[in-house]
Amino acid sequence: MTNVGNIDRIIRAVAGVVLLVAPFLMAAWPGVWGYVLAGAGLVLIGTAAFRFCPAYRLLGMNICGLR
């Protein structure tokens, strides 16, 4: 079951890539914040790839049909 729409998917993918690359550009790696940013980026990329967001499911949201 998908609950992430196309626009949300694109925003999640772009934000995920930015968060994943940010620690390398800011020299924050391997600090704690570098791992936090990279982890958040991976979660966003994963939710964009699978078109499923567990938080949306818990909140009862489904934005696939929204434009």
Give the mean pLDDT: 88
Distance between the termini: 18 Å
Helix and strand element order = HHH
Strand percentage:
under 5%
Tell me the total number of β-strands: 0
Q: What's the gyration radius in Å?
A: 13 Å
Query: Can you tell me the residue ranges where pLDDT is under 50 for at least 5 consecutive residues?
Result: none
Shape label: elongated
Judged by helices, strands and strand pairing, the structural class is: mainly alpha
Individual helix count: 3
Main β sheet profile: none
Provide the helix percentage: 55-70%
Description:
The mean pLDDT is 88. Helix 1 runs antiparallel to helix 2. The two termini are 18 Å apart. The radius of gyration is 13 Å and the shape is elongated. The protein is mostly helical and 67 residues long. It has 3 helices and no strands. The protein has helices spanning 6-25, 32-50, 54-59.
